[in-house]
Write a structure and sequence with these properties.
Largest sheet of chain A: 7 strands, mixed
Order of helices and strands of chain B: EEEEEEEEEEE
Shape of chain A: globular
Distance between the termini of chain A: 36 Å
Strand content of chain B: over 45%
Shape of chain B: globular
Order of helices and strands of chain A: EEEEEEEEEEE
Largest interface: A-B, 25 and 21 residues
Mean pLDDT of chain A: 97
Mean pLDDT of chain B: 96
Radius of gyration of chain A: 13 Å
Radius of gyration of chain B: 14 Å
Low-confidence stretches of chain B: none
Helix content of chain B: under 10%
Helix content of chain A: under 10%
Oligomer: heterodimer
Number of helices of chain B: 0
Largest sheet of chain B: 7 strands, mixed
Number of strands of chain B: 11
Distance between the termini of chain B: 40 Å
Structural class of chain B: mainly beta
């Protein structure tokens, strides 16, 4: 199974500053189509997870452009520019390349200073 | 508006059974692959099972194989998860998830239900 390792596991950010979360995969997530099958999800407190980014860098519908994804191969990054209070929650990366099983990172908890 | 609403969770003794349901609305259910995912504080998010559009292509995480059965009724726009021989480590919040995979293209898991809690305890 592919293992995803996120870092940091928690971070506190001042509103208006940027934040970056890393997701490292135990294997390349490059699909034969040329896409990398790596998504990002946000779980706000008390809510279900929601899709933020799919295929590394594509924002889901309604996701602000403050959220961006990058990376290739085994190393991926979610960047949140100009962090706002509503960005608080736990961020998860997920791989959908070698399935089953789909696998998630451990999650990164974002708090506001 | 697109919605997934799970039901059927509850408290069950070890060895018991539960059937989770997920009612879909606001979209053409039969066009989408569907997933079940569970979450616990210790293990985080864990994929459980998936089913393709017509129910003919099904997979499970190893820990539930032989005990859980995923199915769907496209006429009723409903996804199911039959859980037998339940164990304490099956205790979790169970989410029904829409998989946007379509026409050999993947766009993420774009709709999640609110979750239903399963507790396996004596």
């Amino acid at each position: 199974d592919i293992v995803l390792t996120q870092s940091p596991l928690s971070l506190a950010v001042t509103p208006g500053e940027s934040a970056s979360i890393s997701c490292m995969s135990s294997q390349s997530l490059l699909h034969s189509t040329g896409n990398h099958y790596l998504d990002w999800y946000l779980q706000r407190p008390g809510q279900s997870p929601q899709l933020l980014i799919y295929l590394v860098s594509n924002r889901a519908s309604g996701v602000p452009d403050r959220f961006s994804g990058s990376g290739s191969g085994t190393d991926f990054t979610l960047t949140i520019s100009r962090v706002e209070a509503e960005d608080v929650g736990v961020y998860y990366c997920m791989q959908a390349l070698q399935t089953p099983p789909y696998t998630f990172g451990q999650g990164t908890k974002l708090e506001i200073k | 508006e697109v919605h997934l609403v799970e039901s059927g969770g509850g408290l069950v003794q070890p060895g018991g059974s539960l059937r989770l349901s997920c009612a879909a609305s606001g979209f053409t259910f039969s066009r989408y692959w569907m997933q079940w995912v569970r979450q616990t504080p210790r293990k985080g998010l864990v994929w459980v099972a998936r089913v393709n559009t017509d129910g003919t292509y099904i997979h499970y995480v190893d820990s539930v194989k032989g005990r859980f059965t995923i199915s769907r009724d496209n006429a009723k726009s409903t996804l199911y998860l039959q859980m037998n021989s339940l164990r304490p480590d099956d205790t979790a919040i169970y989410y029904c998830v829409r998989d946007s995979y379509m026409d050999s293209k993947f766009y993420g898991w774009d709709v999640w239900g609110q979750g239903t809690t399963v507790t396996v305890s004596s």
